[in-house]
Amino acid sequence: MSLTKTVEIDKIEIVNKYCVQVRQKTTILENDNEISSTFSRWVITPGSDYSNEEHRVQSICKVLHNENAIREYKESLNKPSLDD
Question: Which burial class, exposed, middle or buried, applies to 40 when counting CB atoms under 10 A from its CB (0-12, 13-18, 19+)?
Answer without folding.
Answer: exposed
